[in-house]
UniProtKB/TrEMBL annotation:
GO terms for molecular function: saccharopine dehydrogenase activity. It comes from the Eukaryota. CDD domains: SDH_N_domain. InterPro entries: AASS, LOR/SDH_bifunc_enz_cons_dom, LOR/SDH_bifunc_enz_cons_dom_sf, NAD(P)-bd_dom_sf, Sacchrp_dh-like_C, Sacchrp_dh_NADP-bd. The keyword NADP applies. GO terms for cellular component: cytoplasm. GO terms for biological process: lysine biosynthetic process via aminoadipic acid. Residues 24-92 form the LOR/SDH bifunctional enzyme conserved domain. Residues 128-256 form the Saccharopine dehydrogenase NADP binding domain. Residues 260-597 form the Saccharopine dehydrogenase-like C-terminal domain. The keyword Chloroplast does not apply. Keywords: NAD, NADP, Oxidoreductase. This is Alpha-aminoadipic semialdehyde synthase isoform X4.
Length: 606
C-alpha cells in the first residue's frame, strides 16, 4: 500500500507506453483521506496493468470530495476487463451476505481503445485532407506524411507520420508546390464552395485539417459532420462554429479548434500549468500571457523592427482593437484608438538580450472563464509582443492619419499624386494648429522639417519619437517622388502597400515566435507562493535553401499533431472543442517537444 499519494503526485505513472488496450477511469470520492486511490492503483499494478495520472483535483477539507482521472493500460482485453471488474468491486463492495455496502467512491469508465505500437503506426488507408496550401500547410503535410520527417524523429519509440495526405487548393499549382518532394501526398484542385466536390473528398479521408480563412470553416465542418469525420483547425471558435457543437456530438465527431500557436500552444501551456497547480491544491492568483511573431534580431533591420510575411492590413487593424483585462482585482479597459499608447516595457530574465514591449490583447477575461480561474485570479492579462519602440512609432503614424480607411480626396481621382505630395497633404490634415515657421513653404523636405512638423501638429510630444517616426516614413518611401498606384484610394491603402513592399522578409531572413506564460500560485496553510514561468522561443528553419517560418511551424505542426491524435483515437471528447483537456495537451506537448518546439520552464518561490 502506498504511504502517501500526495508525495508521489508529480510522478504518478508506471509505464503506460506500449500497452495495447487503454481506457479512461474517473474516480471521485474520499480518495485520499480513506486511501481509496491507493487501493485503486494497487489493483491496477497487481493485475499487470499500467496507469498515468491525467487529472487530479483534491478536496479542500475532510468533507469535500476529490477527483482523479487515470488512463489505464493493459496488454490484452481480458487483463483490462479484470482491472475494470476489480475497480467496480472497489466502488461497489458487498458484505458476506451479498448486501451492497455504501462507500463514498464513484467510478466511471471511458471508451476502451486498442492501439498497440503496431496499431498506432498509421495504416496505409488512413488519410488526411488538408484544405489550403499556404505557408502553414507544408509543415503540417510533411509531419503527417513522413515517419522520418525533418521536424520529429519519433516520440518514446513511437513513430509519427506515415499517413496519406491530400492537399487541396483553389489553385492546383499551389497544392503541387506544397507537396513537392513529399512521399504519399496528393495535390488536388478544389473550390470548397463546391459543396458536392468538398463532400466527395471529405468522405474519402479520416480527418480534415482546414487551414482556410475562418469564414469557410462552417461549410467544411458541416461536411465533416455529415460524413462523421473529425476536423482540426487553428482558428478561434466563433458563434457559428459553437452552434455546431451539439450536432457534432450527436454524430460522434470531434471538431478540434484553436490548435495552432495563439490560439493553440498557448492554451496547452496554460492548462498544463493551471492543472498542475490545482492538483496540488493551489489557487491561481495571477495569469499573464505574452505572445508575438517577430523578426529574428538579425532581421529586425528597419526603424519599426518589424516585418510581415503576409498582407499587413490585418495586423494594422488589430492595432486599433479595444482591450479589456483584470489587474489586481480591477477591470481595465483600453480604447482601440489608445491601444498603442497603452504599451509597456517588457523584459524576460531568461532572455535578457531582448528589448521588448507588450500591448493588451483584446478580451483577456474570456480566458479566465476558459481556464476556470476567473473566481480565483485577481490578475488575468494577455498581451502582444513587439520590439521596444514599435508602439510609439505606430501611435504617431495613427495620429498623423496614415491608418484612416476613408477615401482620400487627393488620391481618389484620375490624377495620381506622388508619395511626397500625399505626405505633404496628410501632414496638413486633421489639425488646427497654426504653423508659424516660414521654413515649410507648403512642403516638407528635410528630416528636420518633418520632425518639426510632427511636433507642431501635436502628433509627438518628444523629439526622439518624432525622429524615429521620420526614419520610418523615409524607410517606407512615403516621401519619394513616385506616383501613388491607382489601387490606393485611402491613406490606409497607401500604408499597407508600402509596408508590404518595404517590410517583407528577405529569402534568407528568419522570423521568430516568442510565447511566455506566468502563473502565480497560492497554497493553503500559508505555504510559499510559487511563480511558474514557461517560455517558447522558436526561429524559422532553413533546409536545402528553403526557409520555413517559425509562425508556419508553430501553427502547422500543432494542427497536424491534433490530426494524428484523432487518427490514433487518443481524443475521446466530441463536439466543438479546444485543446484544454489533458487528453489533448499532454500528448500534444510531448510530440511538439520531440519536434524541437520546446518549453523552457522554471518555478520560483516567494
Amino acid at each position: 500500500m502506498r504511504k502517501s499519494l500526495m508525495d508521489s503526485l508529480p510522478i504518478l505513472t508506471n509505464g503506460l507506453s506500449g500497452k495495447k488496450y487503454n481506457t479512461l477511469v474517473s474516480l471521485s470520492g474520499h480518495l485520499f483521506d480513506q486511501f481509496l486511490i491507493n487501493e485503486a492503483l494497487d489493483i491496477i499494478e497487481s493485475a499487470g496493468g499500467s496507469f498515468r495520472l491525467v487529472r487530479c483535483e483534491v478536496g479542500q477539507n475532510t468533507n469535500a470530495m476529490s477527483f482523479s482521472e487515470l488512463e489505464v493500460g493493459a496488454d490484452d482485453s481480458a487483463m483490462l476487463d479484470q482491472i475494470i471488474d476489480s475497480l467496480t468491486s472497489l466502488a461497489n463492495p458487498r458484505s458476506k451476505e451479498g448486501i451492497r455496502k455504501e462507500r463514498e467512491l464513484s467510478l466511471k469508465i471511458g471508451k476502451i481503445s486498442a492501439y498497440s505500437t503496431e496499431d498506432s503506426m498509421p495504416r496505409k488507408e488512413q488519410a488526411v485532407l488538408i484544405l489550403g496550401a499556404g505557408r502553414v500547410c507544408r509543415p503540417a503535410a510533411e509531419f503527417l506524411t513522413s515517419k522520418e520527417n525533418s521536424y520529429c524523429g519519433g516520440l518514446n519509440g513511437c513513430d509519427v507520420g506515415g499517413f496519406h495526405v491530400i492537399v487541396a487548393s483553389f489553385y492546383q499549382k499551389d497544392a503541387e508546390e506544397t507537396i513537392e518532394g513529399l512521399k504519399d501526398a496528393t495535390a488536388v484542385q478544389l473550390d470548397v464552395m463546391d459543396s458536392e466536390r468538398l463532400s466527395e473528398y471529405v468522405s474519402k479521408v479520416d480527418v480534415v485539417i482546414s487551414l482556410l480563412p475562418a469564414s469557410f470553416h462552417v461549410a467544411v465542418a458541416s461536411a465533416c459532420i455529415e460524413h462523421k469525420k473529425h476536423m482540426v483547425t487553428a482558428s478561434y471558435v466563433d458563434d457559428s462554429m459553437s452552434k455546431l457543437d451539439e450536432v457534432a456530438k450527436s454524430a460522434g465527431v470531434t471538431i478540434l479548434c484553436e490548435m495552432g500557436l495563439d490560439p493553440g500552444i498557448d492554451h496547452m501551456m496554460a492548462m498544463k500549468m493551471i492543472d498542475q497547480a490545482h492538483s496540488r491544491r493551489g489557487k491561481v492568483k495571477a495569469f499573464t500571457s505574452y505572445c508575438g511573431g517577430l523578426p529574428s534580431p538579425a532581421a529586425a533591420n528597419n526603424p519599426l523592427a518589424y516585418k510581415f510575411s503576409w498582407n499587413p492590413a490585418g495586423a494594422i487593424k488589430a492595432g486599433r482593437n479595444s482591450a479589456i483585462y483584470k489587474f489586481q482585482g480591477e477591470i481595465v479597459r483600453v480604447d482601440g484608438n489608445e491601444l498603442y499608447d497603452a504599451s509597456k516595457r517588457f523584459r524576460l530574465p531568461e532572455l535578457p538580450a531582448f528589448a521588448l514591449e507588450c500591448l493588451p490583447n483584446r478580451n483577456s477575461l474570456t480566458y479566465g472563464d476558459l481556464y476556470g480561474i476567473s473566481a480565483e485570479a485577481s490578475t488575468i492579462f494577455r498581451a502582444t509582443l513587439r520590439y521596444e519602440g514599435f508602439s510609439e512609432i505606430m501611435a504617431t503614424m495613427a495620429r498623423v492619419g496614415f491608418f484612416e480607411t476613408e477615401l482620400h480626396p487627393l488620391i481618389k481621382g484620375s490624377r495620381r499624386p506622388t508619395f511626397k505630395e500625399f505626405l505633404n497633404e496628410i501632414l496638413k490634415v486633421g489639425s488646427s494648429t497654426p504653423i508659424t515657421t516660414g521654413s515649410f513653404k507648403g512642403s516638407v523636405g528635410s528630416d528636420e522639417e518633418l520632425v518639426e512638423r510632427l511636433i507642431m501638429l501635436g502628433h509627438c510630444k518628444e523629439k526622439a519619437t518624432a525622429v524615429r517616426t521620420v526614419k520610418t516614413i523615409k524607410f517606407l518611401g512615403l516621401n519619394e517622388d513616385v506616383e501613388v498606384p491607382a489601387a490606393c484610394s485611402s491613406a490606409f491603402d497607401v500604408m499597407c502597400l508600402q509596408m508590404e513592399e518595404r517590410l517583407s522578409y528577405g529569402s534568407k531572413e528568419q522570423d521568430m515566435v516568442l510565447l511566455h506564460h506566468e502563473v502565480e500560485v497560492e497554497f493553503p496553510d500559508d505555504g510559499p507562493r510559487e511563480n511558474h514561468r514557461a517560455t517558447l522561443l522558436e526561429f524559422g528553419r532553413t533546409k536545402n535553401g528553403k526557409t520555413t517560418t517559425a509562425m508556419a511551424l508553430t501553427v502547422g505542426i500543432p494542427a497536424a499533431v491534433g490530426a494524428q491524435l484523432l487518427l490514433q483515437n487518443r481524443i475521446q471528447q466530441r463536439g466543438v472543442v479546444r485543446p484544454l483537456q489533458s487528453e489533448v495537451y499532454i500528448p500534444a506537448l510531448e510530440i511538439l517537444e520531440a519536434c524541437g518546439i520546446t518549453l523552457l520552464e522554471k518555478v520560483e518561490t516567494s
